[in-house]
Amino acid sequence: MTGAEARILPRLDLLPPDLGLYGYVCRRRWPGGYEYGPRLRDLRPGTADYAAAVDEIGRALRVLARCAGPLPRRGPDRRGVNSYRLKHDVERRAGRYVANGAAIAACLLLGIDVQREAADGPNALCAVALTGEL
Fold this sequence. Notes:
- This protein is α+β, with helices and mostly antiparallel strands.
- The protein contains three helices and seven strands.
- The protein has helices at 48-67, 83-94, 100-109, and strands at 19-20, 23-24, 68-69, 81-82, 114-116, 124-126, 129-130.
- β1 (19-20) and β2 (23-24) form a beta hairpin.
- The longest helix is centred in the middle third of the chain and has 20 residues, at 48-67.
- It is globular, with a radius of gyration of 14 Å.
- It starts with 18 loop residues before the first strand and ends with a strand.
């Protein structure tokens, strides 16, 4: 972030209660017993988890604000982009790590339509296409 950019402090209280830093919280445990991080709405300023979440969501917000475009009318992405794929696209443009849940949160905070893909899965379909480069 350059000196000219303002620090973005997202309103975590506006996010769904089942959204964690690494995606939607699931009952099912994935290989290796992977957890989906703290629930974003439960994080409080002054904690390390809050600082990490704010940094990652802010990174995703900056990329999406500059590169987000409408969905294509045809092709496999016409219904939306898988949040895990979107997370990797955002990372390439930001040059740093962004968690799946941070990418989903950024979409929600920008008013982009987000639909959870499966009731017991961490990913979502995000109604956005990334266009151009930063």
